[in-house]
Design goal:
Keywords: Membrane, Transmembrane, Transmembrane helix. One of its GO terms (molecular function) is identical protein binding. The chain folds into three domains: 170 residues, no CATH class; 84 residues, no CATH class; 142 residues, 2-Layer Sandwich (Heat Shock Protein 90). About 3% of the residues have low confidence. It is built from 15 helices and five strands. It is elongated.
């Protein structure tokens, strides 16, 4: 260990904690400003009082404080691991500075030497963090690598951190910086390549599994759709035979001039006709032929059937042919699935609940309108907070999940409106 002037060291720890916590908050999507301030103070105290164990105590503090406010525990854990790893890598890259200082006869025991060393250390940490954030957002790593749900990612990053941490502590103990600096860099490079290969392979397998499950669900929904059409078609054939017989009877009544009997028969025919025309194929599935994308059609079949099973009044409309989703189809399916599920959840216990779904294709945009009746007086801003739910003992979906998808696409706009009777959701994709 090298000596640093205490006051310079303390200031350096404060700025280091700021950088570390900024990275963590970006990765974990923190919104609790008051709690963030308290956490930052605790991290600074830990780094100052027990610097040798700061990584592990920091991780414990972050998890204990934020586990109650973050429903995605894996995202929280992975954010802690990645932030800690970046800080550790910055610490490693400052080791060559020690050799440089020795060669230039700059002593960190002086105030100038301490300030110079700490400043370079912070600049390296800041540079690494900035590069990581740019790459993280540029390549949408969180979504593409499914960090919020990937146990493998956490295990691999945890393994990489522990191996590098132990290796560096051994190097520091024997103060063999100059002798092993090349070996350190080579070791870290090999470990990183190893981790990336394993993770990419696992991620590919996970995506293939997800695609197979989605295809299986799609086939199940399409079969349900065709079975319902076949069932309703059989009923309509029977109706056709009876209808012709009823018309013949009406013609005889008209010939006899018994207008009272004709009025009664017409009322009976109307009720009889409504009983056949009021089916899921005629009412809900009538516009599904305009939805050409099989994944989107499968989702709508599933959700419309679920709405029908919950005995919720529903109106579905898609007058124009829709073929191109304009954004990643899996994101669109997830976005619409969350939105319709929220509408079902809000209306299924209402005595006269109603859902309206419309898809509108225009020259410049594709719009999805999802409206549902509501008895909930909660404000929209509260519904968009992390972890909001109307379900008991359940984390809920919440509108915050919709916002997470929205951030990925600059041409995707989501608007909410709410009054005493209706909650209106409008999803617009600009072409």
């Amino acid at each position: 260990m090298i000596y640093i002037e205490p006051i310079v060291y303390e200031i350096g720890q404060i700025f280091s904690c700021l950088i570390f916590f900024y990275i963590f908050s970006r990765l974990a999507h923190l919104h609790q400003k008051c709690l963030s301030g308290i956490t930052l103070i605790l991290l600074i105290v830990v780094n100052t009082v027990v610097p040798n164990y700061d990584y592990f105590i920091n991780a414990l503090v972050l998890y204990l404080l934020f586990q109650w406010h973050n429903k995605e525990k894996l995202l929280l854990i992975n954010s802690i691991l990645v932030s800690s790893l970046l800080k550790l890598l910055a610490e490693i890259l400052t080791n060559p500075i020690i050799i440089l200082f020795d060669s230039q006869h700059i002593s960190t025991k002086t105030l100038f030497g301490s300030i110079l060393f700490v400043t370079i250390n912070l600049l390296i940490q800041l540079l690494i963090s900035a590069i990581f954030i740019c790459l993280y957002e540029r390549f949408n790593i969180e979504e593409n690598w499914n960090i919020s749900k990937s146990t493998m990612f956490g295990l691999l990053i945890g393994y990489l951190f522990i191996v590098i941490f132990v290796f560096m502590r051994i190097i520091q103990h024997y103060q063999a910086y100059s002798d092993l600096i090349s070996s350190i860099m080579l070791f870290i490079l090999i470990q990183c390549i190893f981790i990336v290969i394993i993770f990419l392979k696992g991620n590919q397998t996970q995506k293939e599994t997800y695609t197979r499950e989605l295809t299986r669900e799609q086939l199940k929904n399409l079969k349900m759709y065709t079975d319902q059409l076949e069932h309703d078609q059989i009923k309509l054939r029977g109706f056709e035979r009876n209808y012709k017989g009823t018309i013949a009877g009406l013609r005889e009544i008209a010939t006899s001039g018994d207008f009272q009997q004709m009025q009664t028969s017409l009322g009976t025919l109307e009720d009889y006709s409504n009983s056949y025309f009021d089916n899921i194929s005629m009412q809900l599935f009538k516009d599904l032929n305009n939805v050409e994308n099989s994944y989107l059609k499968s989702l709508l079949i599933s959700k419309l059937t679920l709405i029908h099973q919950n005995k919720i009044t529903c109106h579905f409309e898609c007058r124009d042919v829709v073929s191109d989703a304009l954004i990643n189809i899996f994101d669109l399916v997830r976005l619409l699935g969350i939105s319709i599920d929220n509408a079902i959840e809000a209306t299924k216990n209402q005595p006269n609940g109603e859902i309206q779904i419309a898809i509108i294709e225009e020259a410049s945009q594709l719009s999805f309108i999802i409206n549902n009746t509501t008895t909930n007086q909660t404000d929209v801003s509260e519904m968009m907070q992390e972890g909001f739910t109307t379900k008991q003992h359940h984390s809920g979906l919440g509108l915050v999940n919709v916002q997470d998808i929205k951030r990925k696409y600059p041409n995707l706009f989501v608007q909410y409106r709410k009054n005493d009777q209706w909650f209106n959701l409008s999803i617009v994709i600009i072409k």
